Amino acid sequence: MQTVHDLVRLAASRAPRQLAIVDDRSGRKLAYAELLAEIDRVAAGLAQRGIAAGDRVATCLPNLYDHALALLALDRLGAVPALINARLKPEDVGELIRQGAMRAAIVAADKAFAAAARGALPPGAPVITAGGIVENSTDLAACAGDASALPAYARPAPDATAFVFYTSGTTGLPKGAELPQRAAEARLLYMATQCGMRHGTHNRVLGLMPLFHVVGFYSVLLGALGFDGTYYVCSAFDPAKAVDTIERERITLLYGTPTHFHAILSAPNFAREKMASVETVVYAGAPMPGPLLDRVGQMFDGRITNIYGTTEVMNALYMPNPVGRPHTYRPGYYSQVRVGRFGGSVHDEAPVGEDGELLVDASADATFTRYLNRPDATAAKLQSGWYRTGDIAARREDGDFDLKGRVDDMIISGGENIYPEEVEAALLQHEGVRECSVVGAPDQKWGEVVVACVVAKAAGLAETDLDRFLRGSRLADYKRPRVYLFMDELPKNATNKVLRRVLRETAARAAEPMWST
Length: 517
Ligand code: 01A
Ligand code: AMP
Ligand code: MG
Fold this sequence. Notes:
The protein is 29% helix and 26% strand. It is an alpha/beta fold and 517 residues long.
């Protein structure tokens, strides 16, 4: 087993002078030997502030260089980073810190987030900010210590939790998936076996994907650092800046959601010639709309791979060279999958050609262990050694798999999961809303957009009222509906259940004019 720290340490011993990280904000360029020294210095600084091996430490940060460094330093100490989506509102971030019994937090330099963290942590626990200074908190940039005082790296047990990554549930707060130390290798190695990434100092990887999701951390950051490559920090996603960086730095690997590719191809400065250095294109998180995939195929000479996976199991299925091909998937090198009959146990396999739920063998090293403090959720998703994905699949005659959407009503927008129930609950808090139902509608840029179907209590309720209300609510901004449809009543069946299927069709027709955005 190689842990995250092992992988970086080994790369540094092979290629100490090779460029490891380039920071887009400060312009700093760190060679591997410098990065390793920096990790030790920050780890020593964090240790001085009381963070110790085994401590769970919340991080809630955009894709800053400091974020990457903090994660690597916490891991070096043997602490367990719990990576919270930086798009959540401070109330939810505080609640996750409280429920996760965290011992410290590293958050963006923002008063509201620092206060939420302080209120949720035990008295006196460190609140560290990155990217600036906030009253009563420590600036991560000043958080360096004497590396010689740091104990040697202690090899953790393979089963010990290394990281916690959050994934949203139907209602309530996101669930924290505990990922064991042994998961690291497989979570980056599939980049070579499935996506064609080769080991070596030629790798120049653009950090488009958020570090607080598993792809951004394991496959992109660690993919670069474990393979002797260079990681180019993108502190914020700016498509035009991404185009410039790809051209200037001769980026070899681009990994994004379909939305990232839509944005890059739509950037005013985009030109096919500027993409000439890109050898490897990978997309994940959502299916890519056909017209977009065709354009990606035309604009990149490199090899394109569609990666299907989840926070809990990482890569499960993939599709090499998807352009112009029927969309069928096959298991990745460490994955075993089956299709389970709807309503059946995980051993009740659906016959070839029949739709069921995609199940993934949970004995693979890449698999999560459990949801943090959520035995109920763990029992619902992890059964007799199989992980229930919640995705509909069918096994084909040729052994490949078709993917056909979700078992539940989850909406995927820009690679982020949004559960309608949560948005509905937020809308119902508005005094003018009698009833509502939230569905997804297809969208060329976002994959799906959130559409709210609303029955108002009285005439005069406007879209702007609801949008303003939700902005001020606890609901994360990216979950807000982008389209509102006001209705006299919601379509329902005989037992008074809202017919989401009917609403989805209505929403698709209504949202269609927006497809060009
Ligand atoms: O009206 P405003 O001002 O609030 O609008 C703002 C944002 O609220 C809105 N926004 C979004 C989204 C979104 N996902 N859906 C809907 N709206 N994100 C942001 O856009 C306006 C501008 O805000 P911004 O902060 O400047 O937005 P961008 O930085 O341009 O963000 C868009 C991105 C697409 C880049 C961003 O959403 C993103 O980074 N998405 C990637 C999510 C991701 O990493 N997904 C993968 C998760 S891991 C699970 C998985 O699928 C998987 C797959 C394979 C796991 C393992 C494997 Cl192997
Ligand atoms: P998460 O729950 O955040 O870990 O996201 C995992 C979910 O994203 C999967 O269960 C799928 O619904 C979806 N997903 C991820 N990658 C793909 C892909 N390449 N194609 C289609 N759906 C995907
Ligand atoms: Mg942006």
